[in-house]
Amino acid sequence: MGSPEPEDGRHSTLDDDPRPSLWPRFLFSLALLGLMAGLMIGRLTTPEPVHLERIEVLPGALVLWFDHEPEVAVEELAGAYALLLGADGRGAGGQLALGEAPVSWKVLRSNQGLTLRFVAARPLQGDWHGAEVEGRWRLEVSLRAE
Predict the structure, then answer these.
(1) Which residue ranges does UniProt annotate as crossing the membrane (predicted)?
(2) Does some domain include residue 47?
(3) Helix (H) or strand (E) holding 83
(4) How many CA atoms lie within 13 A of 85 on its CB side?
(5) Among 7, 123, 10, 139, residue whose Cα is nearest residue 70
(6) Quick check: is 139 in a domain?
(7) Which helix (H) or strand (E) holds 124?
(8) Domain that holds residue 110
(9) Is the full-model pTM beyond 0.85?
(10) How many domains does the chain have?
(11) Is the residue at 64 inside a domain?
(12) CB neighbour class for 131 (10 Å; exposed up to 12, middle 13-18, buried from 19)
């Protein structure tokens, strides 16, 4: 129900403030500053990736040299022997002698790092041993036929 008096604006509600509110901008700038600081701290605390430096072929074994200790996991395949290495590097391949039988080896790049596979005419078993030598990591993979 309306009042009999004409509206002159004295008793009505206030209009919206034409000035922009700074509170949303302030919260957005705080969130952006927090995100940038978190990214910088995360970048500083992330460890360097491990790199495969070189590969040496020995009779019945393969020696891999890394700049740091990599993560190593063994994968048993049907008659083959494989290692999953948490490292970066280039692919490589070759052969080594296990007694009189040749063994083919290959380093493949994957999403998880590197895969080192050994394949021979007979099923293979293997052992790996790692140690730090003069500031680098030496991983020796020894093979034997079943």
Answers:
(1) 22-42
(2) no
(3) strand 81-85
(4) 32
(5) 139
(6) yes
(7) strand 124-133
(8) 52-145
(9) no
(10) 1
(11) yes
(12) exposed
